[in-house]
Known about the structure:
The protein is α+β, with helices and mostly antiparallel strands. The protein folds into 2 domains: 2-154, Rossmann fold (3-Layer(aba) Sandwich), CATH 3.40.50; 163-227, no CATH class. It has 8 helices and 8 strands; from the N terminus they run ββαββββββααααααα. An 8-stranded antiparallel sheet has the order 2-1-3-4-5-6-7-8. A hairpin with a 2-residue loop joins β7 (120-122) and β8.
Amino acid sequence: MKIKSFSFSSNSQNWHIEQVCFDDLSLLVGASGVGKTRILKALALICDVAKGKDRKLDDVEWSINFSHLGHYYKWNLKTSNSIDEVFSSQPGQAEILNEKLIEFKDNKEIEILHRSDTESKLDNKKLPKLKRTESAITLLAEEDSIAPIAEAFKRFIFKDETPQQAAISIPFDLNRISLSSESESVDIKKFKANSVDHPTVFKAYFLQKFFPTVFEEMRESYIEIFLA
C-alpha cells in the first residue's frame, strides 16, 4: 500500500491538516510543534478504523488517496459529534454520517461504496442498514470489491515504540508465521501477510534467519538511502 495524499480534520481536538502529498519516500522534517506527530497520529487513526480497532471517532473527517497492487483508491469519511441524544443508535458514541470509497480507472471515478445517514450502496446496489459506529471497510471486508482495500490497510505499519518496548509489550507467536527455509519464494508472501503487526525487530531477525537474500537486499537499500 502506498499513501498518495490525505487531509484530516478533528473539530473536537482542533486539528486541521490540509492536504499532504507523499512520494515513494517521504520524511517529515520540522521544528517541534509544527504538526509532524499530528500527521502520524491522524494516519494511525485512519488505519485503525479501517482495521476495525476500537478508536474514538468524535467529529472527525478525512480523505485519503492510496494505491495497492496497481489500483488507485480514495476513501472519504465523516463522523458526527459525540452523541448523547435519545434517538442515537448508540448513545455516547460518534457515528459515521458519510462514507465513500472510489476507485480510479482510466481517468474515471468508479464508486465502490457510498453510505449516508439514510442509505448505503455497494457497487451501485442498495445494502441493508450498516452499523454506524464501524467503517464499511471493516463491515464488508469479505466483499470482492472491498477485500483489496481491507488487505491494503493490513499492510499499513505504524510503530511508535522502541525495539525494547515492542519486545516486552507485544506478544509474538512464531507458529502463526509458519516459516520454512525450503521455499523462500513461496513463504516470503506468507511471512509478509502474517507478520504485519509484529515488532519490527523480530521481523528483521526472522527475515535474516529464513530469508537471507531478501534481508540482504533490504539492508543494502537502507544503507544506500540513509548511510551512503
